[in-house]
Design brief:
Blueprint lengths: L5 H8 L6 H13 L18 E2 L11 E6 L2 E6 L1 E4 L2 E4 L7 E3 L7 H9 L2 E3 L4 H21 L4 H18 L9 H31 L78 H16 L1
Antiparallel strand pairs: 1-7, 2-3, 3-6, 4-5
Helix pairs in contact: 1-2, 1-6, 2-6, 3-4, 4-5, 4-6, 5-6
Length: about 300
C-alpha cells in the first residue's frame, strides 16, 4: 500500500541543524518505532544517564501495558519470563490504573516513570521512557483489536502534543530535547501511515464492486453512399435495401417489401352469378310460325 519508509519519515521531520549523530538516531528510531540513543538503545533508561532508585528494575521492566479488565480498560504491570515461570515485574506489581481509552495516556505514564527515577537529572529521564511505553501500548492495542487504527492515529497525535509540552521547559535549538522530539515525530509518521493503510484496506474490502456500464448505442448517421452497418432489424427490409448495400440516390424510392402474413383473409367473397339456363327446345315454334305467316302475306299482295 502507501506506508511511508523510515528514511522518508526521518527526512521529513529532521531539521538541518541536527548533528550527524542526531540524524542517525532519528533514522534508527523511525525504523525501530522506539526513541533511541546514539548507540541504538532505548534512550534515557534508568542508569548512567538517569540515576535510578536502589533496587528499581531498569528498561522495559518499568513499563505498563493496556489491558482489558472486568471493569474496563486499564494500565497494568508487565509480566516477566523467568526460569521459574512468568511473574509480574517487581516495580509494576499490583499496578492497575483504570483508563477510558487509548487517547491521552501520556500524562499518566510520565507520572509512573518519574517514580522510577530517584534523582531526576532531566525531564527526559521520565518523558522519553513514558513516550516509548506509550508507543508500545498504541501498537499492541491496534494489533490486538482493543483499539481501531483511527484510535491509534489519534493517540499518536495526542502523544506528540503532550510530549512537546512536557519537555517545553528544556527544549532548545536542536538540543537533546529537540532531537528526542524529532525522533518521536518520525516514529509517528511511520506508524500513522501504517494505520492509514489498515483503514484504506478495510474500506476497499467493504466497498461494493463497481457495476459495468453498458456501451451507448451507435447513433452515427452514415454519409450518403456509405455502406450501412449490420443491424438486427435487417429481416424487416427487402433485398433492395439490405444492410451493407449503398443508400439509394437522392430522389429514388427505397422500396420496402410489403409484409407478409400467415393470417387468413376475412373478406367475404361475392356470390357467383348463376349462368342463364338454356332455352327450352319448344320455344322456337312460335317464331317459326310468325316467319311463315309473313311469307304468305307478302305473296298475296
Amino acid at each position: 500500500m502507501g506506508a511511508i519508509t523510515a528514511a522518508a519519515a526521518a527526512a521529513q521531520v529532521t531539521e538541518s541543524k541536527v548533528t550527524t549523530s542526531g540524524k542517525a538516531a532519528i533514522l534508527a528510531s523511525a525504523g525501530a518505532l522506539q526513541m533511541l540513543d546514539a548507540n541504538g538503545q532505548p534512550a534515557y533508561l534508568p542508569g548512567p544517564e538517569c540515576a535510578a532508585a536502589q533496587g528499581v528494575p531498569t528498561g522495559a521492566q518499568s513499563d505498563l501495558k493496556l489491558g482489558q479488565t472486568s471493569a474496563g480498560l486499564a494500565l497494568t504491570g508487565l509480566q516477566l519470563a523467568t526460569t521459574a515461570g512468568v511473574i509480574a515485574a517487581p516495580f509494576t506489581m499490583g499496578i492497575s490504573i483504570a483508563v477510558s481509552g487509548l487517547v491521552g495516556l501520556f500524562s499518566t505514564l510520565i507520572n509512573h516513570h518519574a517514580q522510577a527515577v530517584q534523582k531526576e537529572q532531566t525531564v527526559l529521564c521520565s518523558a522519553v521512557p513514558a513516550a516509548n511505553n506509550y508507543l508500545k501500548i498504541i501498537a499492541q492495542s491496534v494489533s490486538s483489536g482493543l483499539a481501531t487504527p483511527q484510535d491509534g492515529i489519534s493517540a499518536l497525535e495526542s502523544l506528540k502534543g503532550d510530549f512537546r509540552s512536557a519537555v517545553g521547559s528544556i527544549y532548545g535549538d536542536c538540543n537533546a530535547a529537540c532531537v528526542m522530539y524529532e525522533e518521536l515525530e518520525a516514529i509517528c509518521v511511520v506508524m500513522e501511515s501504517q494505520f492509514q493503510d489498515m483503514i484504506n484496506s478495510a474500506n476497499a474490502a467493504a466497498a461494493p464492486p463497481a457495476q459495468a456500464v453498458p456501451p451507448a448505442p451507435n447513433t452515427t448517421i452514415p454519409a450518403a453512399g456509405a455502406p450501412l452497418p449490420s443491424s438486427s432489424y435487417a429481416p424487416f427490409y427487402s433485398s433492395s435495401a439490405t444492410p451493407g448495400s449503398p443508400l439509394p440516390a437522392t430522389g429514388a424510392t427505397n422500396t420496402v417489401a410489403a409484409p407478409t402474413s400467415s393470417v387468413p383473409s376475412f373478406t367475404t367473397a361475392a356470390p357467383a352469378v348463376p349462368a342463364s339456363a338454356p332455352a327450352a327446345s319448344g320455344d322456337w315454334l312460335p317464331v317459326a310460325a310468325l316467319v311463315i305467316a309473313g311469307i304468305f302475306l307478302m305473296r298475296s299482295l
